[in-house]
Every structure is written in C-alpha cells, then in structure tokens.
C-alpha cells in the first residue's frame, strides 16, 4: 500500500470505478463478515470472559483479554487473508484481462496451462472450498434466526423442522436476489443492511453504558496494537492449558477465513475494477477492521458490563448457548422487543446477501465467467447450498460445519501462498513495463522552425482545427509510414474514426499484442487565468481542443499539436522501437499475449 506499486490500477490506466465508494465498501463488508458479525458480537466476548482458561485473572483483566482476542480474531488478520486473495484476482482479471477465476492468479507461474487441467483443478477446489465456507456461515445464521424467533415466541422451539422452513424461505429470497444480479439485488441489500447495522450500533451505544464503551474501545484499540506481534506469532506452545482454547478459537477462525476467502476474494475482485492497489488495500484492511472493533466493543463490552453490574453473572451462564445470547442481552436494554426484531431482520438480510453473492460467485467459477448463464443453474446452486447446510446441521450441528471448514482450509492456504508469489512477480514486471523509457538514440527537437512552434504554443485550437490537423499532417505522416513499413515487409494499416475524430496506424500480430499508435481529438477545460489575464495567450473559449496520442497498451498519451509531419513519423518509430524491445524480453509475455489485443475506445 505504501510502495511504488500502490498507484497501479486494477484495470487499464484510464479505467474508472464501477460503484460508488459507499456501495463498494458496503458490498465487500456484507460479503466478508455478514452473519458471523451478528452471531459472535456478544457470544465471543462473553465466552472468552467466562472461559476457565482466564479464571486466574481478575474480572477486569478477563474483560480486557476478551476484548483483545475478539479484536484479534476479527481484525486485520482476517481481512489480510481476504485482501490477499481479492487483490490477486482483481489484478489479474482487470489488469491482464484474464478470466475472473482462481486459476488466473497462477498465470505468472503456469502461463497458458491455466486454461487446461491445472486450471480446472484449481477452480474445482476453489468451488468446493467456497461452497463449504458459505455453508458454515449460513449455518450460523439459521440457528441464530431460529433462536431469535423462539425468543420472540414466533415459533415454539428452534428445532430442525423450523430450521428447514427458515432455510427454504431465505434461500428462495437469495436465489431471487442472485437472479436479479449484483447491480440490483446485492448492491441494494448491502446498502440497506449497512445502514441498518449502523443505526442498531448507535442505538445500543446510546442506551448502554456510553462513557464506559467509548473509554473501553479506546483502551482496547491501544491494547490490540501493543500486542499485535505477540498475537500474530503466538502459538501457545509453552502454555498447554490454553492449547485447547487456541485450537477451538484461533485456529478455527483462521480455517474459516481461509475457506471463506475464495468466495470473498472473487466477489470483492468483481466489484473493485478501477480502484488503485493503494485504495483497495486501505479500504479492505482498515475500514472493515475499524468497524468490527467498534461493533464488538459496543456489543461485547456492553454485555460484560451488564453481566458484572446488573445481571449478576446471568449472561456468563448463557455463554454455552451462543445462539440465544444476543437476544438475552437485549432483555437488559430498553425496547428489547424492537431490538430483537431488528437483529433478526439484519441477520436475514445478511443471510440473503451472503447466499446470493455466494451463488453468483460459484456460478461464475462453474461457468468460467460466462456473461450469460441459464437461470435454472443459479437456482440449482441455491438448492445445493440449502441442502448441504441442512444435512450438516442435522448430522452434527455447527460442529459438523466447523469440521468441514477445517478440512478445506489447509490445502487452500497453500494456494494463497502461491498467489503471493504470483502477485509479487507480476507487479515487478508491471512497473518495469510502464516505466520503460524510449531508446537512448532518440533525438529531441533540435530547435528548427522555432518561430512557427512558438506561434503554435500561443494559439489555442477549436475542434475543427484539430480535425484538420488529424486529416492532413497526421494522415500524411501515417501514409508515408505505412508505405515504408510495407517496403520492409511489414503490413500496416491505417484506421480512421469519427466522433471524435481519430486516426491510428496498426500493425497486426498473431501471437503478440498488436502495435497501435493513434491520435484523437481531445478537449480540456481552460483555466480562468487564461481567460482573464492580459499577458497570457488570447483565448475566448472555455474548452481547448488538441490532438492527443494513444497506444494499444493503454499507456497515457500526450499532446502532439506541435509536431510536424516528420516529428510525428519519428515519434511513431520511437514507440515501435520500444515495442520491439519489450516483446523481445520473455518476462513481458503476460503483457504482450494475443489475449490482450483489443481496440482502443
């Protein structure tokens, strides 16, 4: 994020983000956390607080440790895993124009083999990992919704029968949302959910021990940063009494994040085109982490404060029943029934957004990101998700879901490490490619015809003048170049377009990317200083037109209005010489592949 690679865009150099910043953050947050945030916000701090492992500590230290380890499990470490997978996929998909698929992250290592059996094997495994990761999260949502409905006396018990009904209803909604697409279903639901979560957070902060919560959050944040490296590298190998706790919490969380990362990574890569690497990492690492800390502090610390000051240990005794703990916690706040309804609604929306975006991602993996896939196929993915979640809940409850997560996480962790190798390798090539300068033999303008050039500098052009330049000077230069290329056995063609006027010389290749040098009619707004200052070139229009060069690999062009015919010819030759030097280097084959051929728009 702080390196020279931070400015690289996830896409062409001139690409723009597809979604607003709020919608983008809302979708990646809803996909990355969702139901788990609701399920564990009270349950995890209370379970750490009441765990016998921390019995030797005072209540204050137990509360601090509970907050610290909750921050640890839901903070930067989790989002670093998501960010690593998401950044790799977004980079290779949008920058190299490879398919948005797990196999694309291996392109620097496997090259064209990603289109064969190796690529298929990677995608199949990613599909299985995604499937089980989503199923685990949906399982948490089902049991918590059932417990909440039982608390509100809407259903008599949270039995498996009622879990089946809940799954059928919510998966049906998820399928409907997935069929409507990311732009409609997922985006709208994510925005609604984030707004609802923020309102719920503010309400609990206002009605709970507000001053205590603000102070404990600040102290907890400092405690987290002070212990960051100890938490990161701590394995509890010298503390045998804490090893079971470490396996049941930290290791399970890492497995959960890793198994969830193909889905989250693919989804946030899909919605992140046009963002810079710096913007992507900052948003993915910092914003969700900070919100998670605030959320866990408000709910977890409120529950511990109530347990110690009001409930006389009643919430601690419910730590073994995490499904109902959130709803029991609200009984000690005003408007408890309203809160319970709101929580259930938020979990339902989180369930739908997680399931529909999961269905969307799995369908993309299975179809190799086909632009159009039959709707019955999307329905089938939803039915399979619901069926597996119910089978695992019936077979062994959440324990079965967690076991499945552990099984899929270890192999995929190796894939994540290979993603890191591929990304580092590709970024180094990317930077070298775009920073490569012209040959040292390039001769700058000698100063001839300086009077004519000065006149051009102080003259501002309208659109018609620039069109004339393109149709005369540029066209003549390209015609002479075309003839000379053909005389040397190289076929070149000249393409012309209208609205805006542009012309380009193109050399087609079957194996490597086409060479394109073009000039187009561009416009830029004129500074107010030029319109009002007397001792500056005279101009009356608020928009100045100029001929701008462009290239086949989306590098930034520049103003060529001062170029003569021969200087334009020289400029094209400079770029062609650079092109030949680049394709001669084997390490640049990711940029010069025929797959990158496309027409400049």
Automatic annotation (TrEMBL):
Record-level GO cellular component terms: plasma membrane
A GO MF term: transmembrane transporter activity
Transmembrane parts of this sequence: 21-42, 71-93, 121-140, 160-182, 194-215, 246-268, 280-299, 338-366, 378-398, 404-428
Record bears the keyword Chloroplast: no
Pfam families named in the record: BCCT
Primary site of residence: membrane
Subcellular location: Cell membrane
Keywords of the record: Cell membrane, Membrane, Transmembrane, Transmembrane helix, Transport
Membrane protein topology class: Multi-pass membrane protein
InterPro entries named in the record: BCCT_CS, BCCT_transptr
Family of this protein: Belongs to the BCCT transporter (TC 2.A.15) family.
NCBIfam families referenced in this protein's UniProt entry, alphabetically: bcct (TIGR00842)
Protein name according to UniProt: Transporter
């Amino acid at each position: 994020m702080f390196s020279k690679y931070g400015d690289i865009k996830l896409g062409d150099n001139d690409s723009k983000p597809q979604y607003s910043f709020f919608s983008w953050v809302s979708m990646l947050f809803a996909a990355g956390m969702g139901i788990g945030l609701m399920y564990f916000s009270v349950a995890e701090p209370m379970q750490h607080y009441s765990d016998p492992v921390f019995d030797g500590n005072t209540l204050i230290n137990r509360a601090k440790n509970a907050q610290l380890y909750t921050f640890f499990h839901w903070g930067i470490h989790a989002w670093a895993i998501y960010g690593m997978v998401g950044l790799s996929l977004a980079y290779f998909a949008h920058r190299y124009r490879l398919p948005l698929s797990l196999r694309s992250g291996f392109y620097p290592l496997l090259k064209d083999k990603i289109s064969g059996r190796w690529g298929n094997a990677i995608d199949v495994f990613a599909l299985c990992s995604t499937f089980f990761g989503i199923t685990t999260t949906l399982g948490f949502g089902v049991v918590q919704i059932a417990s909440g409905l039982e608390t509100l006396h809407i259903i008599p018990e949270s039995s498996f029968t009622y879990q089946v009904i809940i799954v059928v209803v919510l998966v049906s909604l998820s399928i409907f949302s997935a069929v409507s697409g990311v732009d409609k279903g997922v985006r709208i639901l994510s925005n609604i959910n984030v707004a609802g979560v923020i309102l719920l957070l503010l309400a609990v902060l206002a009605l709970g021990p507000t001053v205590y919560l603000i102070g404990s959050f600040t102290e907890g944040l400092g405690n987290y940063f002070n212990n960051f490296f100890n938490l990161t590298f701590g394995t509890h190998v010298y503390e045998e009494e804490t090893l079971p706790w470490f396996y049941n919490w930290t290791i399970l969380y890492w497995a959960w994040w890793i198994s969830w990362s193909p889905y989250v990574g693919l989804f946030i890569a899909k919605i992140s085109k046009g963002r810079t690497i710096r913007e992507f990492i900052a948003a993915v690492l910092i914003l969700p982490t900070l919100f998670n800390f605030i959320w866990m502090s408000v709910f977890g610390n409120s529950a511990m404060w109530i347990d110690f000051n009001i409930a006389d240990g009643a919430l601690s005794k419910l730590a073994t029943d995490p499904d109902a703990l959130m709803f029991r916690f609200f009984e000690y706040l005003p408007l408890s029934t309203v809160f319970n309804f709101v929580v259930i609604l938020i979990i339902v929306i989180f369930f739908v957004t997680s399931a529909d975006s999961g269905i969307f991602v799995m369908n993309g993996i299975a179809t190799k990101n086909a632009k159009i896939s039959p709707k019955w196929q999307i329905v089938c993915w939803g039915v399979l998700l619901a069926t597996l979640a119910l089978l695992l809940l019936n077979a062994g409850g959440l324990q079965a879901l967690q076991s499945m997560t552990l099984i899929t996480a270890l192999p995929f962790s190796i894939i994540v490490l290979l993603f890191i190798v591929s990304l580092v390798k590709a970024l180094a090539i990317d930077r070298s490619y775009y920073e490569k300068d012209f040959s040292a033999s390039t001769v700058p303008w000698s100063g001839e015809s300086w009077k004519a050039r000065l006149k051009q500098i102080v003259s501002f052009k309208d659109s018609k003048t620039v069109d004339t330049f393109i149709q005369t000077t540029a066209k003549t230069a390209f015609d002479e170049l075309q003839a000379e290329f053909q005389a040397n056995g190289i076929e070149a063609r000249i393409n012309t377009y209208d609205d805006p006027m542009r012309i380009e010389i193109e050399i087609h290749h079957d194996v490597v990317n086409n060479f394109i040098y073009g000039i187009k009619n561009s416009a830029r707004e004129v500074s107010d200083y030029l319109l009002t200052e007397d001792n500056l070139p005279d101009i009356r229009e608020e928009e100045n037109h100029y001929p701008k060069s462009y290239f086949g690999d989306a590098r930034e062009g520049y103003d060529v209005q001062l170029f003569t015919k021969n200087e334009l010819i020289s400029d094209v030759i400079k770029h062609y010489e650079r092109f030949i030097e680049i394709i001669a280097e084997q390490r640049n084959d990711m940029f010069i592949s025929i797959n990158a051929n496309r027409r400049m728009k």
